[in-house]
Automatic annotation (TrEMBL):
Residues 104-130 form the DUF7575 domain. This is Zinc ribbon domain-containing protein. Keywords: Membrane, Transmembrane, Transmembrane helix. Pfam families: DUF7575. It comes from the Archaea. The lineage of its organism: Archaea, Methanobacteriati, Methanobacteriota, Stenosarchaea group, Halobacteria. Residues 132-156 are annotated as: Disordered. The chain crosses the membrane at residues 6-24, 31-51, 71-89. It comes from Natrialba swarupiae.
Length: 156
């Protein structure tokens, strides 16, 4: 499931930088990458008057090919590539520990994000969770009570 989500995030980021981050609910990065890409389009692509004057898709492609320079192509390609790579790594949970630093309660074994204790699934990655059966330990048999909440385990 994580690989499928990472591939979907990368594919969406290739189509529109920021869309892959929206899939993984990283809203700040969504705004940053979409804003960068749209700003680069405004800067490097032909003016609106030139675009509205074209009559066919073929003429539009010729206009864009003639008007955009090598630097513009590089910047647009770099933004698309960086957004796709970043969305892929974020969907896979990299960098390690980035999502686990702020988690106070139980965390999901798949995505590492904080869990809602009332739900039987992770509301971030939809992994089904089941309570772990308490094991009879020697310390519990010695008179200690297990008053702590039961840990949650992913069902596979």
């Amino acid at each position: 499931m994580t690989w499928l989500r990472a591939l979907a995030a990368a594919g969406l980021s290739v189509l529109m930088p920021g869309a892959g981050h929206a899939l993984i609910r990283d809203w700040l990065r969504t705004l940053v990458f979409a804003g960068l890409y749209l700003s680069a389009i405004v800067i490097f692509l032909p003016s609106i008057e030139q675009i509205t004057a074209i009559e066919s898709v073929g003429e539009g492609m010729e206009l864009v090919g003639d008007e955009i320079d090598t630097m513009g192509q590089f910047v647009l390609s770099f933004i698309v590539l960086f957004a796709a790579i970043d969305a892929t790594f974020r969907a896979m949970g990299f960098p390690p520990g980035s999502s686990n630093e702020s988690v106070d309660g139980p965390s999901c074994p798949e995505c590492g994000k904080e869990l809602d204790e009332d739900l039987t699934f992770c509301h971030w990655c939809t992994t089904r969770l089941e309570p772990v059966e308490p094991e009879e330990e020697d310390s519990n048999a010695a008179g200690e009570t297990g008053s702590e909440a039961e840990p949650v385990e992913a069902k596979r």
